[in-house]
Amino acid sequence: MSSNVETQEKPKKRFIKEGTFGIYTGFFMLGSLIVAGAIIPRISKYGADDLAAIPLAPPSRANFFGTDVLGRDVFVRVFDAVFIDLGTAIIGVSIPLIVGTIIGTLLGISQSKRINAVVGSLIDGINAFPFLIFVIALIAFIGPGVGSIVLAISLVNWARYARIARTRAVVVNKQGYIEAARTLGYSKKRILFKHIIPNVSSETRAYALSDFIIVIIAVAALSFLGLGIKPPQAEWGGMIRDGKDLLTVGFWWPTVFPGLALCWAGIAVAFISEGLTRRMREVGTR
Amino acid sequence: MTDSQQTAAAQDAQMVVEKDRNRAALRKTFYGRILRSVIVGFWVMVIAFSLMRLSPGDPVRLALGADVTEEAVDAFRTQLGLDKPFYIQFWDYFTGIFRGDLGYSYFSGRDVTEIIGTHLPVTLMIIGLSILFAALISLPLALFVATSKSNTVNYMFRALTSVSLAIPGFFLALLGLLVFGVYFNIAPAAGYEGAFPGNLKYLWLPALANCGSLVPVLSRVLHSSLVDTLDEEFVETGVIRGVRKGRFYWSYLLRPSLAPTVVLLSYMVGVMIGGTVIMETIFSLPGIGRELITAVDGRDYPVVQSIAMIFGLIVVFFSFIGDLTGYLLDRRVTLS
Predict the structure, then answer these.
(1) A189: burial class by Cβ within 10 Å (0-12, 13-18, 19+)?
(2) Does the pLDDT value for residue A264 go beyond 90?
(3) How many separate domains does chain B show?
């Protein structure tokens, strides 16, 4: 135990801020994916839906990731899917983030006990459903497609943000600077949007980053289950679905490469999220 | 009575009062939790019921398809009780839940309660196995990292857990299938046998892939509470007293650190359920998740609605149990 104490007391000499490595790695990974997604489908010889070679040709110099069961180039399709996958996830995170933060904040600062009890337990009720199950059930009723994925995810996920925002808003609302703003006679609207929401949303935005990983996996999972983005649009989850039955007979490339792309995107955001958390913690302890 | 006797008596009285207060607090926590769970459970039923009303089209018409006569649609609607006013429908549905009557499948005509009764055990077994695997991996891992003084180990642990959170379960399952099913040929890709020890052959890989989302979360929380516990004075006392290794690890380190992990585990049941649905689809296991996907494909609304509700209630139940277990494991948490 004694050696442990010694190492703790030694002043740490750091020239690079905590978490910097994670943030830069994450942004580099995400940026390279976006750049590749913008360039590769344009400059490639084959389109995403074109017949590039014989079906299920293994990875080669002509087709880096091989071809799928319809003879389409997996390399082009993986990068053609970047924008639809990332885009759906970004919208699917942003809408609940905004809606949930506003509703949660209003709930946190509202004086009415009745509204708090009713809406609060409604939020708990929505949060009680397993995320993926609720989204699948909603899609059963509103039908598959990009729009319904975003709608279903928003309808489920706002409650998670609202719960975080509400807890935070109760704390923020009691802070001295809010009291000061009230004493200065600022309008309620100004206090809400300029003073309370920015302080509440720092928390929900931090959650949004880790939620992004859950949502991008959920979007792919829905397509994987056949409930999401419709073929022939190239999409990672859908490509994995198309390839999964061939996996056991030895054709691994139509499945593994889109899966790796999905992991790459998720890991990039995980690095950014981890780095930012560490940096925030360091600022907090200073 | 001497002074010392007096103080002793006072201390005894104090202890009795404390004990009573503790018991009262326990009771209060218990009843409060039950009330909360009942309210949330009620909302779960209401939400599941309103799902049907979210549909943009007429669910009955959608379910029957395009080319049916008006009479057939009306007859079907009457048969399902959908022609009655909203509140009566809700009352029927609500009381039906307690009578064990969840309606009938639109297509097979099977009792939904029966569908759930047949397929739920498989799903619960996969979840149980996943939690067991997750515990078997997370406990030693967190204990090793927390007691290790190496910076590299700590850094690797943080990096690996945050990376593995971003790997989707269904991709992990397919990779597992590729490695264990095709290359080593020790896991069947599909098929299922009902009896308990025999079905483990089919369930171990899905459960292992499913716990991939659980291990990083669990081990992280356990690790951070272990680090907190290590700072406590009683741990040093344990070291000085030379407590046996097994007892030291369990009573001095793990038990005081487990409460947050147990609570978190109960909250993760929802995530596990979502993962299980995917695993059942990949490995063609006859669980309730595969029924759900089939029902969604066929627009079999009563089945979708009931399965969603059952899963919601399961989550409510487990968070209740988890909160209570966490409280009993470490009473400092909620009493203060």
Answers:
(1) exposed
(2) yes
(3) 1
